[in-house]
Fold:
Amino acid sequence: MLDGKKSLFSGMQATGTLHLGNYLGALKNWVELEDEYETFYCVVDLHSITIRQDPAELRRKARSLLTLYIAAGLNPEKNCIYYQSHVSAHAQLSWILSCFTYMGELNRMTQFKDKAAKHVGNINAGLYTYPVLMAADILLFQSDIVPVGVDQKQHIELTRDIAERFNAIYGDVFTIPEPYIMKTGSKIMSLQEPEKKMSKSDENVNATIFLLDDTDTIIRKFKRAVTDSGNEILYLEDKPGIKNLIEIYSIATGKAIKDIEIEFDGRGYGEFKLAVGEAVASMLKPIQERYNQLGQNKDYIDGIIKTNAEKADYYANKTLRKVQKKVGFPERIR
Ligand code: TYM
Structure:
């Protein structure tokens, strides 16, 4: 709760280009929450440097991501869209919370284990304490909900544990956040290995649909999507390839899963894959057009970056000052 209104925080990493999983699992759902919540959507560039980045590339990707937030439909007048590195309270609260987080808890984080296995030459302390920074992001804004895909659930559970531990010692300082995860789309799978989630860093380019892929590329990738034995369009647990495509098609067209099964009864995988490709391409087209227009409007984007960072900074510091006082830091002399 912020000033009597329910609030929320979510963010995405500025590494790589956004993919269909990021869009369907998170961004697409954010757009519907702006009236009910005070919203904070962050480009989490502090998180990005847990993996080595080229500085010019990181800056370019961060701006591209912020522009994509707006292109996907987030109105920057209603939603606070900003860069994490512009609000120093994130790092400050993260330090304090790290003193309320146990190593045993961090050792259990599956994302750390996965990333450490992928980057054996650079298992840095930031990668390990990443979930604490994430807790700080969420708690700074007294978030009631955190709209994310399934893969972030464990981090939000840890955030809740840290917040409850802190509140138990110091009183009601933090709102305890709930994960906000959609039934469909919260775990979009790879088009090449449907047992694995779709990811930015997949080496096989055909596994991932990027938000800025052109129509031909999207259709080609769906045509090549790995499906299961058989040729019926049925939403079944033991048919992960076709199940994933049905889910994607359902969100892209707004059609119910049962209706899709009826629509494609007896029509085979080839025809269905083409229909999914076309539906996704036409869903993404307006976003891509708006993204290109926004890219030409430097002053408009710069204005958003400035005013929204000020707003985020204001609310973040309100929480931070309260926390600093609670733990016993001396008051500032003005
Ligand atoms: P990131 O950048 O990996 O992913 C951004 C969002 O996309 C969702 N997502 C998916 N959803 C469905 N299917 C998929 N295959 C898929 N892949 C990714 C993620 O669940 C996420 O919602 N640690 C976070 C960023 C972060 C954050 C936060 C999120 C930092 N601080 C505070 C929420 C609150 C991350 O790396 O997301």
User: Anything to note?
Assistant: The CA atoms of residues 42 and 130 lie 15 Å apart. The longest strand covers residues 7-12. The chain has two domains: 7-186+298-327, 215-292. Residues 9-13, 21-22, 25-26, 44, 47, 134, 137-138, 146, 148-149, 151-152, 186-188, 197-198 surround tryptophanyl-5'AMP (CB under 6 Å).
